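Hey, sorry to bother you again with one of my protein questions. I've been puzzling over a protein and I'd love to understand its fold better. Take your time with it, there's no hurry, and the full record follows here:
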Amino acid sequence: MPNAWKRDKPTRLLSPKFLFLLFSSTLILIFLFLSSRPSNPNPNPNYFPLSSRLSFHAISPFDCYNSPQAHPVIASTVEGVRHPFLFSLSDFGTLPDKPHKNIVRILKGKPFRKPDISVTVQDILEKAKAQGRDGFFVDVGANVGMATFAASAMGFPVLAFEPIFENLQKICEGIYFNRVANLVTLLEAAASDRLGNVTVHKLVGRLDNSAISATGAKLAFKSNEEVAVQVRTVPLDEVIPESEPVLLLKIDVQGWEYHVLKGARKLLSRKGSQAPYLIYEEDERLLEASNSTSKKIRDFLSSVGYNDCTKHDTDAHCTKKDV
């Protein structure tokens, strides 16, 4: 049955058999995950939610409770991570002929394939934890929460920035499924270097993906059709007080990285190990589409003390050393 989409005569999208297999498999996996998961990943009785420690004069947290529910919901656990978590798909592929690979995995009784960023986030936070360091994770360009939930599954507080409503809905589902409402603070905004608004281009048929540059959107997602929407922008320094420790800052915003970094000058200017471990996407084509370059970014980072950067595929990892 998992190979039914390969038939010469494809099954109808709303075929009862197809829907039964898909959603029964999803519900079983979600039930097994929730029944085995502790209700609070952070056991510290003196823990104060991150939302009570941040500054929200510029923007208020996204209200998942009063947000319309997306449907259908297809979610599952992730394979191969030390701290398991669950996330919801927003891209289903082309049903029923070419479903998303993770839907195929559900029908075969397998968990979702692990996203590389989830493994990376857990590795870095494991090292920080072993060193006795405390703090939170900032996820800029959270998408559907694959990095956010990798961190919150370990008990780390998360501040997530995501401007696209369809993604926000999926993050809200993940907050519920992973039982991390006390750990994840979600902002409906694009992090940038100034308060205001900016036009974001969402891809037709893939509304989970977006870029501020229309050219960058086409380069990143190989589509000639997009929908332009206005979203709020807010600098990280407007939200994160200087007294709050940040362990890890991840930025994946399809070429807008330079503007995000400029809006986090105070955060990035912290001394030595007080400055966050930094991961950002360094794709030259996307950066140029947003009027920046990797050299421009590296020069800026050097000006705030990040002189140790290494390239990992299309990502750059940067740290500061204690003097």
